[in-house]
Amino acid sequence: MPSLPQRKVGIVACSGEEMAEGTVTRLAALKVLEELRPSDTVTICLPLFLAGGEGDRAFAKFYPTIAVDGCEKRCAARATELYSNTPAVSIVLDDVLAERGLARPQGLRRLTPESQPVVDALAEAIAAEVDNLMASRWSRAEGKVLEPETPAKVSSAGCACGSGIPVTRVQVDGRAVEIMALDPILEMAYGQGLRAATDGGERKKPGFFRETRFLEPPPQLMDTVRLYNTFPAEDDAYYTEAVRIAWQGFCAAKEQIHG
Amino acid sequence: MSVIIVPCSGIGKSYGTVTREAAYLVVDELRPDDTRIVPLSLLVLGDTEAQAAVRDAQVITLDGCKLACATVNVSQAGGAAAREFTVLDCYRRHKDMKPQGIAELNEGGLALARALAEEVAQAAAELEGGHHA
Question: What ipTM was assigned to the predicted interfaces of this complex?
Answer without folding.
Answer: 0.89
